[in-house]
Amino acid sequence: MARIDVVGRVQRALEDAGVREGSRLVAAVSGGVDSMVLLDVLARLRERLGFRLTVVHVHHGLRGQAADRDAALVQVEAARRGVPSRVICLDPETRPSGVSIQVWAREARYRVLEEARRKLRAAFVLTAYQRDDQAETVLLNLLRGTGPRGLAGIPARRGRILRPLLTVDRPGIAAYADRHGVPYREDASNRSEAYRRNRIRRRLLPLLAAEYNPRVVDSLADLAERLREDDAALADLAVRRLRGLARREGALLSLPAAALDALAPAVSRRALQLLFRQLAGPDRALTRRHVTALLGLAKAPGAVWLPGGLAARRVGDRIVLGAASELAGRSAGGPPRLQGGRTALPVGRWVAWPLLPWRVRIRRVASGAVPPRSGVQWSAVTDGKVLRAALSLRPRQPGDRFHPLGAPGRKTLQDFFVDAKVPREMRDRLPLLLDGEQIVCIIGHRVAEGFRWSGTGEAGLIEVRGTEA
Length: 469
Hints:
Strand content: 15-25%
Structural class: alpha+beta
CATH topology of the largest domain: Rossmann fold
Distance between the termini: 69 Å
Oligomer: single chain
CATH class of the largest domain: Alpha Beta
Number of helices: 15
Number of domains: 3
CATH superfamily of the largest domain: HUPs
Strand order of the largest sheet: 3-2-1-4-6-5
Number of strands: 23
CATH architecture of the largest domain: 3-Layer(aba) Sandwich
């Protein structure tokens, strides 16, 4: 097997990204073979290219003494090469409830690496993602179900993240480590087949290489590269189409439904993703289900809830995207819309809730006459005092708090949703019943303690039905 020029490939990747004399770089070094080889190569290139290098090791606090030894190795080897290093320790206790260890660790790692980059005023954070990792990612996305963007894998550069080893495969990295005596540590979790990526690495890719294509890693990595090129061309076309179609009105974005419907599907899908990212941020993306629902608005009126508290609604001949609370006031007809995207809820009247296929009603029931739940999806009883209030519905807002019925005290809605295991995609869609600014009830879930019915006297009965009822 021909020897791979690892140093030359990393140098070309750095030069292509614009790294020049005086550039500052942060290298994320875990202690594994890939990142330790990256450290050794970067140390050799410092003088040649004239950049300034700092090593950052993220200690996740998850593997006890093994993780401590990883950090120690990184510090010793960085110092041996004259490279300054920092160890950043994370606290696993900060992991939010309901978030997996893997997701928390990845997101926290990239967050602190970006913070380090900014503090050091570095141009890039360099990670040791390599060619076999790319092939695994393509297969992983394929098995999950994905489109061209998922099959395009991870780019060599994304924002301020640079992956200069992406053209080097695992055998090439191992050969470099042996040849130059680069020490490294093995993470025992990489041998565990409890993780899907590890099963792909240890079982599926060797099977494909042995029985179907000995160069399957190269084939998958080359496929990713071609699809990235195609995706970039289609995204550029979508940008050019949007320039003549999209319109901003304050915090809302819109485009003509007919023009969206006339675009080629590959372009219209990317145009919708671009619009969504303008509102939600560059790292957010719509699922295939969301995009399909949005394309449906080009043919018929309706509303679609989107991640991050956003929504889309057909308003006349345009599709409008924005905060769900803002768009709640854009529907035609129906009950009066109040300031801040609220919907008035008159006593005794069914009111459509625009973010779910629900109708909501509150009606008066006499003492001892609270009926069993019948013909409705959900119901709850409140103190009769709400019947004399000006009631309204709205989605949650940042900082909302209430005292759940039967709970020891007040809590944020976010904490309540996590504890009650309410799916993330539902949390911004659920209506809150308000008496002025007080939360009376999270419709579909819980009445507030302050509006508990005593069991006697007049009561308010909250009911929910599907819109088709």
